[in-house]
Amino acid sequence: MGKSNGSSKQSALKRLRSSLSAAGLTGPKAHVTKKDKKRGVTKASGRNEDRKQKLKAIQSAMNPFELQVNRKKLSVLGLKRKDEQVNVAVARQKAMEKRKATIGSERKNRNKAGAFIDRRIGENDAKMDPEEKMLQRFTLERQKRSRNSSMFNLEDDDDVEGAITSLTHFGQSLDDMDTFDDMVGSDDEGTGAIDRDTVAGDHFGGFEQEGPARKKTKAEVMQEVIAKSKQFKHERQLAKEQDDEVRQELDDDFAAVRALLFDGDDDSKPMMKAADGEDNDMDQSYDAAVRELIFEQRARPQDRLKTEDELIREEKEKLERAERHRQRRMDGLPSDSEPESDDEDGLKKGYAAQSNRAPEADDLGDDFAVADSDDEGNAADIQLGAGLGAEESEDEDDEDRSDGSDEDSDSEDNDDEGSDLGDSDSETESEPKKVKKVTKALKVSADSKPSSSDDALPFTFTAPADYDQWLEIVGDYTLEQQLVVIKRLRTLYHIRLSPQNKEKLSNLCIILLEHLAVLTEQDPPVPMVIIDEISKHIGELISIDVDRIGEHCRQTVIEIHMRILAAIKGSAGTAEKHVTAPAVMRPSDVALMRLFVSLFSSSDRYNSVVTPMLMAMCQFLSQYTFTEVNDFAAGLVLVGIIHETQRLSRRFVPETLSFLFATLSATVCDPANSKDWNGQFPLSKRQREAYGALCISDKSSTVAPVTWAWLSATFGDEGEITTAQKLGVLRSCLLLARKYIDVYFSTPAFIELFTPLQAILGQVSERTADKAPKEIGDLVNEVRSYLDEQLEQSHASRAPLKMQYHKPLAIQSITPKFESNYSIDAHYDPNHDRNEILKLRRQVNKEKRGAVRELRRDAQFIQAERLKEMREKDKTYDAKMKKAWGVLENDQSEMKKLDKLRIKEQKGKI
Amino acid sequence: MSLKRKRSESKKEDKELIEQVRKWEANVLGKQQNLNDVLEILKVAKGASVEASFVAINALGRIFSGLLSKGLMNRTKDSKKLADDAAMQVMAVKILMQLMQHEGANLGRLAGGYDFPNEMLQAVLQTVLASESPSDHLVRTLVDAYIDSYDDVRLYFYRGVARMLAEEVAGDDAVVRNVFAVMTAIRSVPHKDSSEYGSFWVDPPAEADRQQLAVGNAQQHQKAFTEAWLGLMRQRLDVGMYKQILLRLHKRIIPYMAEPRRLMDFLTSAYDAGGPVSLLALNGLYTLIGEHNLNYPLFYEKLYALVDRSLFHVRYRARFFRLLEVFLGSSHLPAYLIAAFIKRITRLALSAPPSGVVVAIPVVYNLLKAHPARQQWQDDPYDALERDPAKCNALQSSLWEMATLQTHYYPNIATLARIFNEPFHKPTFLLEDFLDHTYSTFFESDTARTPKKAPALAVQPPTALFRAGDAVTEFMSF
């Protein structure tokens, strides 16, 4: 309408007239036709409304103020814009109608649960003529029919097109089938066995067959198929009947057979026995038996016992799974995310996956979970910059503006120790405690009464809560008896017996850790068997409460580290520290650290106990000044322990190699001459001089093996290391070196790492030739030849590294980028993603605005509707009330009239 | 009347005072116990009466010269009575300085211009610096109260020191040590601008003339400063002093020197000394090369030599790496040189503690990124013992060491080393973030927080403390 308005140059009156006639308001269709009347449309109701609306629309369309013209700045040829002219009124009208159809109808049906929907064609369409309606309905009907019939439209029975003359089944008229016997069984009726000929001939394979001259019609084929299928079905039924007969016979004979069965064992079946006796007796015993049977617990189905093979396989799988998890942790991946870890007994990782050892009385079983063990996430968490001590950085900065106060840089070239020193308070704090324990434990081993046998031991003990209580319990027993006590404690407070036992057992585990530390400090040393046994107990107990015991172990490591720091400070300062200070690395420290290595998964990329422990050990190895025999023994054992941690993961620990090479060199090199020392390992003057204590100068025919006792030994007051001991250290170094060659053989820099060892070994072999016994010479040569061989292999197998390919980065340009035709509307952001985001954001905003507008209009519409309804309601109410009032008033007037009449009558009477 | 009486009364008092002063003087000179009387004399000297104060000052002068000859000089010979003497020394110096001030003022008045009592100062300096062990307190007083605070005292101090050191060619260790102690304690530095010299012990007469005088002239100050330091550097210094001087050289000495180029000999010999001294000399040398056109032959060869087995362990490694980054930052350096440094650093990282490795990896990464020509690795013909970077064949060798460091036992280092497996698109590392680590910082960062999860347990629980076939059981018996 808008268009015609805009384009025409007619007068307004003409335009109005034409639009009125176009809308059907004037002219022949303006009046109500007979058809309309038939349809029930009266001029008064719907028709009138319609008319009103149309008039309103025309009115607004004709109103030039309701026509919005969007002027275009540029005229582009061939470009048509929708919004050149927008008739606001029409648009509003449309929106209104739409709302009426949607929200309005919804409102109408608001509180209604169901409704009939008239889906007949044209029933809701007021504009549709009845003829048109009928025609549409008819065509649809025809279409449906034709579709239906074509479904089964076989070639021969297409007599009447589109009409269903008779019912069919599989294309065959049901009338033609007198019986249903030869039907092909449908799938759910049976196996649907069809003989081979049918299949070969008629199913999909039959096309190539040389058939008879006349091709069988589909109907014939189907008939055959059906007939054959029916035959099979019949046969099957016969067979089934026969089976039933046989079964019936057997059932009949069963009574006799049962008598035979129970004849043999009369004792076990009293009721059967009773069957032979008196009837009365039999009945009674039978009843009794029945009652017995009622109350007898029924046998429950038992899980099938697994065969030996299955057990072994399961065990193997468990181990493999545990190993897989370990591997993943070693690579720093979470073991949980492993795809195949959906094992039904995922709880039994780690310890629970124990090898097939014989089950013991105090076995913990699998009723508690070994905590899932993956700490790799932590490794990523730790940031390199995190732990910077303020002290240290200050120290570094201070150098530049130092004011003579740091004149301590005199002789020591190696740093770190100055800044590394933690407070020694805690060390002194822990000292007396430990001493006390040691004395107590000394009492343990001294006072122990070897005479008392295990029989004298009580069978129950109270669970010890701390080490003192433990000492009270075991104070009087021998070490062997202590083991029995541990065993009994573990049985008494087994985790399955009570949930509270978890705490007791974890207490016991921590006590055992302390006990182990104390036992390893004893002089003379406690037999290794006892220590091993306690270690085993700890290993089995730790899974009770990994969190708590793990934390205890971690704290132990921190304590050891603090002592190491203090010792490094001491060793850096004065040379005579050994006179008073006890050994830094106590045997207990060494033992505990060794135990931690086997308790925890030491091959993990990050383990909250093992990783800090490694750090502490390495600090000791690289910064401590080794002078005495116990120092060297501790160093060697630590190197051994580190080897154990890297046995599987083969990570690179530079400090161990440096220590090994330095110690090896120390046995032969001149401490005064730094040029004499081969290798890359760092060597300060102070360390070099300290290593002088190890230099083999005399001849010795014996080699003193390194023993556990060396760790706590001070070996006399003279402090000199004997030549035999030096040779012992040398021998240990050589053995360890060979171990490390194995560990690091596969590392890429094997050649770089171990080539210096060649020179060192050369020196050793040359200079010890006349001083050491043949044993050492042989060992040196053996290690040398082994190293040579390995180096040769490594040289042969190593392929040069290649830089990974990457696209070269463009040189950063700093020239400003100019746009020749800059437009403020265009986006010049070179970042594609950002552009996209901006675009999307605009779209979202636009949509949001539109949605808000729509919602507001909806609300307005609803409000208007509600108002309308209200008015309607009020109107009807008013009318009703008026009516009521009218009636009442009428009545009242009638009454009054009557009253008046009566009065009149009475007066008249009077 | 009253005025007259007053005058006569004051004359009387004066006479009495003078008599008293003489008595005190005799007391002091006679026995050293009555030193408190000196204070009384000083009081008189500061008093209103002209005659009395003149007598008092004279007396003081005599007392002090006597003390100077007896007290201080004697004390340098026997330094056993230190507790007493420290206080005495300090007091004597204080009084002498005060005296010097008066004398200077007096001299100035007499000459009608300005004259610093230099001889007296030199005498004091001689006494203090030549003493076997001047107390810390004395040094501190001398520096804090006078040399640091007053420009003229400082100027004459530097001049005196320069002269003393030039005379003492034979090298008296005590003098050198004392001079070193005093000079390193001085905090104030010569200003570039003459107008900034404003605080004087002996006041010059007029503001305007100051710049004509030596004490007000910046050039004179700088010259004296330079001479004194150069004089000290020419002496035989022990390692500690050497390091201290080198440490403060580039920030506290070179910028204020008249001719920094004269330090060349000192720095060159320090750089050649090797070890930590060389590392420290690097800073000063860098300043000279950068700002004063020093041409140092074979600089990079020597720098290469500094990268030795103890580099990752020494205290000053952070300093060194900061400078190394600067020295190797030039894009005009030959590839072989960069390659040699990279190879050497990685080789040393194989035996370095984690704190060293954590520096080496970013350094190597930055170098590789800045010098892409280096990135052609083949076999490994690198010669670690070759001193000349041109001949060590580093350019043809692979960085096997980095591959091994990727399996370092400390997980953070292993992660850091993996950066070489990725394209070199990461921005260069800021070296500062990596320089201040030690074992303890690593350990503490690992143990500071309680872990959220319990540590993973071993697959097999231990059945014995030492596993059968354990490395320890192989060499150890129990």
Automatic annotation (TrEMBL), chain A:
<keyword id="KW-0175">Coiled coil</keyword>
<feature type="compositionally biased region" description="Basic and acidic residues">
    <location>
        <begin position="289"/>
        <end position="323"/>
    </location>
</feature>
<feature type="region of interest" description="Disordered">
    <location>
        <begin position="1"/>
        <end position="54"/>
    </location>
</feature>
<dbReference type="GO" id="GO:0030692">
    <property type="term" value="C:Noc4p-Nop14p complex"/>
</dbReference>
<dbReference type="GO" id="GO:0030490">
    <property type="term" value="P:maturation of SSU-rRNA"/>
</dbReference>
<feature type="region of interest" description="Disordered">
    <location>
        <begin position="175"/>
        <end position="216"/>
    </location>
</feature>
<dbReference type="Pfam" id="PF04147">
    <property type="entry name" value="Nop14"/>
</dbReference>
<feature type="compositionally biased region" description="Basic and acidic residues">
    <location>
        <begin position="117"/>
        <end position="132"/>
    </location>
</feature>
<feature type="compositionally biased region" description="Basic residues">
    <location>
        <begin position="31"/>
        <end position="41"/>
    </location>
</feature>
<comment type="similarity">
    <text>Belongs to the NOP14 family.</text>
</comment>
<keyword id="KW-0539">Nucleus</keyword>
<dbReference type="InterPro" id="IPR007276">
    <property type="entry name" value="Nop14"/>
</dbReference>
<comment type="function">
    <text>Involved in nucleolar processing of pre-18S ribosomal RNA. Has a role in the nuclear export of 40S pre-ribosomal subunit to the cytoplasm.</text>
</comment>
<feature type="compositionally biased region" description="Basic and acidic residues">
    <location>
        <begin position="95"/>
        <end position="108"/>
    </location>
</feature>
<dbReference type="GO" id="GO:0032040">
    <property type="term" value="C:small-subunit processome"/>
</dbReference>
<feature type="compositionally biased region" description="Acidic residues">
    <location>
        <begin position="391"/>
        <end position="429"/>
    </location>
</feature>
<feature type="region of interest" description="Disordered">
    <location>
        <begin position="95"/>
        <end position="132"/>
    </location>
</feature>
<protein>
    <submittedName>
        <fullName>Nop14-like protein</fullName>
    </submittedName>
</protein>
<keyword id="KW-0698">rRNA processing</keyword>
<keyword id="KW-0690">Ribosome biogenesis</keyword>
<feature type="compositionally biased region" description="Low complexity">
    <location>
        <begin position="441"/>
        <end position="458"/>
    </location>
</feature>
<feature type="region of interest" description="Disordered">
    <location>
        <begin position="261"/>
        <end position="459"/>
    </location>
</feature>
UniProtKB/TrEMBL annotation, chain B:
<dbReference type="InterPro" id="IPR027193">
    <property type="entry name" value="Noc4"/>
</dbReference>
<dbReference type="GO" id="GO:0030692">
    <property type="term" value="C:Noc4p-Nop14p complex"/>
</dbReference>
<dbReference type="GO" id="GO:0042254">
    <property type="term" value="P:ribosome biogenesis"/>
</dbReference>
<protein>
    <submittedName>
        <fullName>CBF-domain-containing protein</fullName>
    </submittedName>
</protein>
<feature type="domain" description="CCAAT-binding factor">
    <location>
        <begin position="278"/>
        <end position="417"/>
    </location>
</feature>
<dbReference type="Pfam" id="PF03914">
    <property type="entry name" value="CBF"/>
</dbReference>
<dbReference type="GO" id="GO:0032040">
    <property type="term" value="C:small-subunit processome"/>
</dbReference>
<dbReference type="InterPro" id="IPR005612">
    <property type="entry name" value="CCAAT-binding_factor"/>
</dbReference>
<comment type="similarity">
    <text>Belongs to the CBF/MAK21 family.</text>
</comment>
